[in-house]
Amino acid sequence: xxxxxxxxxxxxxxxxxxxxxxxxxxxxxxxxxxxxxxxxxxxxxxxxxxxxxxxxxxxxxxxxxxxxxxxxxxxxxxxxxxxxxxxxxxxxxxxxxxxxxxxxxxxxxxxxxxxxxxxxxxxxxxxxxxxxxxxxxxxxxxxxxxxxxxxxxxxxxxxxxxxxxxxxxxxxxxxxxxxxxxxxxxxxxxxxxxxxxxxxxxxxxxxxxxxxxxxxxxxxxxxxxxxxxxxxxxxxxxxxxxxxxxxxxxxxxxxxxxxxxxxxxxxxxxxxxxxxxxxxxxxxxxxxxxxxxxxxxxxxxxxxxxxxxxxxxxxxxxxxxxxxxxxxxxxxxxxxxxxxxxxxxxxxxxxxxxxxxxxxxxxxxxxxxxxxxxxxxxxxxxxxxxxxxxxxxxxxxxxxxxxxx
Amino acid sequence: xxxxxxxxxxxxxxxxxxxxxxxxxxxxxxxxxxxxxxxxxxxxxxxxxxxxxxxxxxxxxxxxxxxxxxxxxxxxxxxxxxxxxxxxxxxxxxxxxxxxxxxxxxxxxxxxxxxxxxxxxxxxxxxxxxxxxxxxxxxxxxxxxxxxxxxxxxxxxxxxxxxxxxxxxxxxxxxxxxxxxxxxxxxxxxxxxxxxxxxxxxxxxxxxxxxxxxxxxxxxxxxxxxxxxxxxxxxxxxxxxxxxxxxxxxxxxxxxxxxxxxxxxxxxxxxxxxxxxxxxxxxxxxxxxxxxxxxxxxxxxxxxxxxxxxxxxxxxxxxxxxxxxxxxxxxxxxxxxxxxxxxxxxxxxxxxxxxxxxxxxxxxxxxxxxxxxxxxxxxxxxxxxxxxxxxxxxxxxxxxxxxxx
Lengths: 405, 405
Fold this sequence. Notes:
The structure is a homodimer.
Chain A: H1 21-33, E1 35-39, H2 41-51, E2 60-61, H3 64-73, E3 88-90, E4 100-105, E5 111-116, E6 119-121, H4 125-133, H5 141-147, E7 152-160, H6 166-169, H7 177-187, E8 192-197, H8 203-215, E9 218-224, H9 235-249, E10 255-260, H10 269-281, E11 286-289, H11 304-307, E12 320-323, E13 327-330, E14 335-338, E15 349-350, H12 354-362, H13 374-399
Parallel strand pairs in A: 1-4, 8-9, 8-11, 9-10, 11-12
Antiparallel strand pairs in A: 2-7, 3-7, 4-5, 5-7, 6-7, 13-14, 13-15
Helix pairs in contact in A: 4-5, 9-13
């Protein structure tokens, strides 16, 4: 029997909605005959999260009552905790309650699932934004996406028939919760901390992970492999960079790497709760919450994402937050430290902004060893070097009049 | 109401046996009239631990049945968990069951308590040694003390009337559990890790404490101020050295210092349990257990003291172990690390034995900054410098024929 934390929800078992075998084959055929509804990449990735059981205990997109409960007090009508509405929307006037439809990723053209429409409803989008993002500012990337949603939300149970490009494109990294649980079980882990990553790991991330390794059975370095923002390091480079760090600076058997397809909402505190919720399904007893977790701009206080874990009903969520303060290298401490453990001044600390890091790397400069491991820097330098070559080719093309072709 | 962990035992409240006010005055007078029984410094310090409530829920020295239960399965007859017999012994043939006696520290002459003798019994000392120390080797300092005990054990409730020299000699450091609890409450702490110390703090101890600071509300640096072994750094120097480290390398409000009068048993795993048991009374939810905790020589495996926490009945002890592996500075990691977080080789690590440290310091040499903070080294150097001067004075005296005076 597994010693791992139970999956989220009252049933305490994984509920994957991905069909298998003959059932899958039949549903794929049937989907072709159904009305095809285009969905966004966020909706597609949410479906895949449901498919693999990462969104257990959800069985489909939320009803209006669930949407309302989640916005108001993190609770679905079945009494299960959930922190952010998981919904699909459309402007299509023809879809009716009772319809069975196929959900097609508008970006890849892949049919991800079929859905039995049990309810078609409108929502107060501003209300959702206020509840989830604490703002209705259209500059907020999460708000922008909600406000751009279709007029109607559709609720109803889904049958997932594809994991899209993820298993292939992120082979060896992309994992279903049942898979990570198996790995943890084989390692004899019980207390597992998840580290959320969507960027290469520098020494502050390494430090977060190592604190967790010291006090837990192991750390799950869990990368977002869903859609990224422009300017982000692409998945393959990031995977290589994280791999180099893990190989050279962690003890074997203390770290497991994995990837999940969800897209960021940038909902700060609420998203931290969502991260913990689906990490519980992946078998993690703890979720590392650092400074400004899942935040964007100045919408959230740096530790709001830690505090919110004290504001939800007791026992609603079994996965606990492992809070860690802002981390950095301190020359006086002679190593990595956090605001909780270093009493020294700014002048003693190495603080680099993300902008400075990108600028240094894109100009071929070196990052100090106190900020990033040389093995990681090398991989990032190679990536930026490649970018530069691409730009040069483009510029060369322009010079010979090949632009606009 | 306090958010701290409840005191140990079914009553979940501190049970201090130290009398106060008029009752104390009267008992002091009465003690003078009673039969005076000499006790060892270990027995005296155990009495003070009972006096201040640190040994809650004990109400006196153990009966034979309790002694047996504790040896056999960590359990007293009242169903409370206890890991090491707390007993007083004598060779006195005259003491009888029913007697009321005064217990006098043979080293200081201070009357520590009065006792109602409810039972006089003999024990199989080898059996106790085997159970507690896992050995009957007389080279083991704990075994030696048990084997040197009197023929009879005396059981019975005690009334403590003195805390001996501790409050005065360790003013500002010596604390009762009610005092540390008040301090933690005032700081708003709930999750508190105790760090057991009986030596100056070098960087590996600092590292242990800082890992705990990262993941807990705070750390209680809890120094043994009971009797030491020869060659140990004396209390005042140690207190100064630890103070210098805390002042210069910890953030205010993350660390509380305290001292307790108990003597070491060097019982390794069993003593780790005892350390956790009385730390729960002091208000600590966690006890840091490092490598070879409370061990001596090669009697225990380096992590036996961590493993034993999994071998006691579930729920018997609320204070949890916070296990941390062997720690050191690693040049390749570029900072402090442990065997759990550093994958590098011995050649990359700075490892100094206690003997090397004492040798370097006593010869006026410098310890590397990666091993010990300069502020700490300075205090230890001053101490050894003072010792040397004393030796010189002695030698000088010898040369002028003043020896043996």
